[in-house]
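Protein record
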Amino acid sequence: THQYRIEGDHMTLILRYPDAKNVVLFCSLDGFKPRVAQKKSTIWESELPAGEPFRYFYQVDGTPFVPDCPMKEKDDFGLENCIYDPFL
């Protein structure tokens, strides 16, 4: 399960993946630099600014993972990215 929570000017992406040992978020806001997600019980969280659109995907235990999200696009590698757009 994948969702997000907005609080003020930032958002928290939440990924429920209880068996994962390592989750990394890659986001277009910073050129897809790896951001290690924080494990909290059975979920993984990543904090981002909420005011502008971005694309993202995860790497779960070394394997690319695109969660079920409302908007997606194909990337340059034949995979997909989720799209977050606060203006839609």
